[in-house]
TrEMBL record:
Protein name: Phosphate/phosphite/phosphonate ABC transporter substrate-binding protein
Record-linked NCBIfam families: 3A0109s03R
Source lineage: Bacteria, Pseudomonadati, Pseudomonadota, Alphaproteobacteria, Hyphomicrobiales
Domain of life the protein comes from: Bacteria
PANTHER family, sorted: PHOSPHONATES-BINDING PERIPLASMIC PROTEIN
Length: 325
């Protein structure tokens, strides 16, 4: 099967699992790539807050989910101090919602069960267009730098010393919606190395970055495409040893997880949630403990239109559609 058809089939499966059909009487308005249930009158590529106050939500308990790149139990503890701060700023209860897949996270926001989320780089466009996700911040280092690199890794003794050596072997990806775990490496392998899945190597999906990394470290896969910061955090926690894996390719820097809210929260509540992110004190917190290895130390302002431009270009190169049907 050619890469284009294989890719479209994988994306379609993820999208089908994550969405439901739009209302039959969708409002006529500018929307670009957004699903028919949303409007984009200001041209920022993100769903507008409903103008009808009756369609705005103000839940008693705010449900938060972090992208499912690793063990959800680890991140429930990591986000505990932030959620306590969120409760103080908003005056509402906050609950951590452990999601097992990108599709489940998108589905939860689209259905109204998820109010605040961190969607991974590759899932952001699908979440924005199909679930009404409205991102406004990402993690950054103390000097304001941000992002991560896609890395192709192998293990010593695999017989893979360079990317071309993957030909004829298995290569692990994470999920069809992941930028570093699937979309970026697929585009790079095709454009820079003339290598296509199914034709030049056998693609397999592990589900998560940590599964791919553990699979390489334990010799289940000879190679995998992953987000480098996930690997560094796993080394820091002694989940794997540094000498169990090695990098044979690194990409340009991509934006990391984008954080935001459902589009239909009351504006006053959305403002309080933004305040909670930007006033959170990292020093000595559970977030600092978890992310200090990758040097994140603050939340900074961002916007989807500009920060995710390179990701949308990668999607376009892979013929990815954001259709929710």
């Amino acid at each position: 099967m050619k890469l284009k058809n294989w890719l479209l089939s994988a994306i379609a499966l993820a999208a089908f699992a994550a969405v439901s059909s739009a209302p039959a009487s969708a409002e006529e308005c500018p929307r670009g790539d957004l699903d028919a249930r949303y409007c984009d009158r200001d041209g920022d590529l993100v769903a507008d807050t409903p103008t009808d106050p009756s369609q705005q939500v103000d839940p008693d308990t705010l449900v938060f989910a972090y992208t499912p790149v690793e063990d959800p139990a680890v991140y429930k503890e990591a986000w505990s101090d932030f959620l306590t701060h969120l409760e103080k700023v908003t005056g509402k209860k906050a609950q951590f919602f452990p999601v097992q897949s990108n599709a489940a996270q998108v589905e939860a926001m689209r259905s109204g069960r998820l109010h605040i989320a961190g969607f991974n780089t590759g899932s952001n466009p699908l979440a924005v267009n199909c679930a009404g996700f409205s991102p406004f911040t990402i993690m950054a280092s103390a000097d304001g730098t941000f992002g991560y690199k896609m890395a192709i890794i192998t293990h010593p003794g695999s017989g893979v010393e360079k990317v071309e050596d993957i030909k004829g072997k298995k290569m692990a990806f994470t999920s069809p919606t992941s930028n570093s775990g699937f979309k970026a490496p697929s585009a790079i392998l095709k454009a820079d190395f003339n290598m296509l899945a199914e034709k030049d190597f056998e693609p397999v999906f592990s589900g998560k970055h940590d599964n791919s990394i553990l699979g390489v470290a334990n010799h289940d896969y000879p190679a995998a495409a992953i987000a480098d910061k996930v690997m560094y955090r796993m080394i820091q926690r002694d989940v794997i040893k540094e000498d169990q894996v090695k990098i044979i390719y690194e990409s340009q820097t991509f934006p990391t997880t984008g954080f935001g809210t459902a589009h239909n929260l009351k504006p006053e509540l959305r403002a309080k949630i933004e305040e909670a992110f930007f006033t959170f004190d990292w020093e000595g917190s559970s977030l600092q403990k978890e992310f200090e290895k990758s040097e994140e130390a603050q939340f900074i302002n961002m916007n989807y239109k500009d920060f995710w431009d390179v990701i949308r270009k990668i999607d376009a190169a892979n013929d990815v559609s954001y259709s929710c049907n």
